[in-house]
Beta-lactamase domain-containing protein
Amino acid sequence: MPDVITGAFVPRGQGLMFTPYGKTTLIGHAGYGGQNVRVDPEREMVFVYLSNGLKAGFRDSAGTYLKLRDSIYDCFNDV
């Protein structure tokens, strides 16, 4: 269902967002300023991005979070 304010599709429930990523679905929540927490139940892994300032981007589009997420999963692909 689209967000009533922005019209953007935001898959969420009970405060959590369910985001497809590759073959898995990440569960978590994006905060104001680019902060993000994600759980990968398949890998039994949690990762968090916290910053000391506001970052550009909305939800999962903050570049610093995307670089962290992609780097973490690149490590799994190298194993």
Observations:
- The CA atoms of residues 35 and 51 lie 6 Å apart.
- The helical segments are 63-78.
